[in-house]
Fold this sequence. Notes:
Blueprint: H1 17-22, H2 26-31, H3 35-50, H4 56-70, H5 73-85, H6 90-98, H7 104-118, H8 125-133, H9 138-161
Helix pairs in contact: 3-9, 4-5, 4-6, 4-7, 4-9, 7-8
Amino acid sequence: xxxxxxxxxxxxxxxxxxxLKATPINIFKGMANNPDVMQGLLGLSGSLGKSASLTPRxxxxxxxxxxxxxxxxxxxxxxxxxxxxxxxxxxxALAFRRGDGSNERETALLHFLEAVLDKQGFVDDAELDAFxxxxxxxxxxxxxxAGIAWMTFTxxxxxxxxxxxxxxxxxxxxxx
Length: 176
């Protein structure tokens, strides 16, 4: 049961009411308690969506892996649904959650992501070089860090709020 007040488009501040009318999902209903922060987060999300440094599939790999590491069932369900709309199979979504890519580029992305998370950004030159060798540029480095920030915020918010999942639930990840 959510721990914060939930807004709908009628009770929300006018700045975020259109978002709630267009996308009335539970995370936004709770986040609407602070329209300034919600707008900022949606701005970051929009920027991530426009950036061409990572493919849509790669962006979802980042979102799913961070959410798995942070144990956010809400974001796992939401981004599995989003990933499916972008052509990511259920099997590939599970692989991303485990940190496994389906090709060398995705694997390099997920290895770099793990290094950034494990080392709190203090990656060594070899890790950055390996990421670049897989075809990523400096803009992709920025996008990975922004994706981590976006997902970490939403994961933590959902934990604090105990956001009710309003997407199809996804299975737990099992290791082979």
